[in-house]
Design goal:
By secondary structure, this protein is an alpha+beta fold. The protein is built from two helices and six strands, in the order E-H-E-E-E-E-H-E. It has a single domain, classed as TATA-Binding Protein, CATH 3.30.310.10. It has a six-stranded antiparallel beta sheet with strand order 2-3-4-5-1-6, covered by helices on one side. The longest helix is centred in the last third of the chain and has 19 residues. The protein starts with 5 loop residues before the first strand and ends in a 6-residue tail after the last strand. The model has no long low-confidence stretch (mean pLDDT 90). InterPro entries: TBP, TBP_dom_sf. One of its GO terms (biological process) is DNA-templated transcription initiation. Keywords: DNA-binding, Transcription.
């Protein structure tokens, strides 16, 4: 019998804007709690949340969002939806999640034979 894999991290991505639109990451960083934006170091706005799901989003001005830190595919999709709501509320406009996909799943297992 094979050991059960334990998911450590799920990385997912989604597009949240149409192609010709841009997000103002400076203004979002001033409005959203726990958001950090240092364009001289990294081109994305970084948003970290602890509730309802501990996760981190990397939000790019072209509307691409990358979510890391969740422990399941379902939680990753929920986390991105929560980030979209947060950004939509701060941006005062309707933003939709498009083209959600899983990029990577990191897992581990314990082998009793070693």
């Amino acid at each position: 019998m094979f050991p059960k894999a334990i998911i450590q991290n799920v990385v997912s991505t989604a597009q949240i804007l149409n192609k010709n639109k841009k997000l103002d990451l400076y203004s979002l960083s001033n409005i959203i709690k726990n958001a950090k934006y240092s364009p001289e170091r990294f081109s994305a706005l970084i948003i970290k949340v602890e509730q309802p799901l501990r996760s981190t989003a990397l939000v790019f001005s072209n509307g691409k969002i990358v979510c890391v830190g969740t422990k399941s595919v379902k939680d990753s999709e929920i986390a991105i939806r929560n980030f979209v709501k947060l950004i939509s509320k701060a941006n005062c406009s309707s933003i939709n999640m498009q083209s959600f996909k899983i990029l990577n799943i990191v897992s581990s297992f314990v082998s009793r034979d070693i």
